[in-house]
Design a protein that fits this description.
By secondary structure, the protein is of the alpha+beta class. It has helices at about 5-20, 30-35, 40-50, 70-75; strands spanning about 80-85, 100-110, 120-125, 140-145, 155-160, 160-170, 175-180, 195-205. Strand 6 (about 160-170) and strand 7 form a beta hairpin.
């Protein structure tokens, strides 16, 4: 393993100390202050090197994107985290992780996400599922590898449109989508119905 330079080792120690004290990683500006430098670029270069050497893992698109160190998680009794993409929409063929479909990423505890490699987040629009406790603006965690069965809440593509509804089967074995709001009628596909993921968790922000 490539040896750390003294400044890289100091940056690593600053991150670890901050994580122990705050339960989260420092921002670039906070690392600049701790290291006594004014340039963000110098910190970014150190982080790039540390990531290339495998000493840190991070998501560069969020302010505190450095993942918690394992020794910090153990001391603070924090579970490991996974990062899931937030999809603005899902095209035909299933969830795809291409930039045009991704709004951002969110770190979640592994306790919440049982199959992180097969899971994604989708933002809820509308009020058709309020009686199931799912409101507009909520994020649902969905798993693409689970087999949807009658009664499951699913992310579906029905006749070219994405929706979140409860999957139902009629007496003849045909499937349809049931809203959880008395103001909405069941959805019977005219041409095509694709189950793109089974909802496994709900994330709500009160801010």
């Amino acid at each position: 393993m490539e040896k750390l330079t003294p400044k890289q080792a100091k940056v690593l120690k600053i991150i670890e100390k901050y994580q122990f004290a705050n339960g989260a990683s420092p921002t670039i500006r906070e690392m600049c202050k701790a290291l006594g430098v004014s340039s963000d670029n110098s910190i970014i270069k150190h982080l790039d090197k540390l990531e290339a050497k495998g000493d840190i893992k991070r998501r560069s698109d969020i302010p505190r994107g450095i993942q918690m160190f394992s020794n910090v998680r153990q001391r603070l009794h924090q579970p490991a985290e996974v990062s899931l993409p937030i999809l603005g929409s899902i095209p035909a063929g299933g969830p795809v992780e291409k930039e045009e479909h991704i709004e951002g990423y969110m770190a979640l505890s592994e306790d919440i996400v049982s199959k992180p490699q097969d899971s994604f987040l989708l933002r809820v629009t509308g009020d058709s599922m309020v009686d199931a406790g799912i409101y507009e603006g909520d994020l649902v965690v969905a798993c693409r590898s689970l087999q949807g069965k009658s009664g499951d809440i699913v992310v579906a593509l029905v006749d070219g449109m994405n929706t979140i509804k409860r999957l139902k089967k009629n007496r003849l074995g045909g499937i349809y989508l049931q809203p959880e709001n008395a103001n909405y009628e069941p959805i019977y596909p005219e041409d095509d119905l694709q189950i793109q993921g089974v909802v496994t968790a709900l994330i709500r922000s009160y801010k």
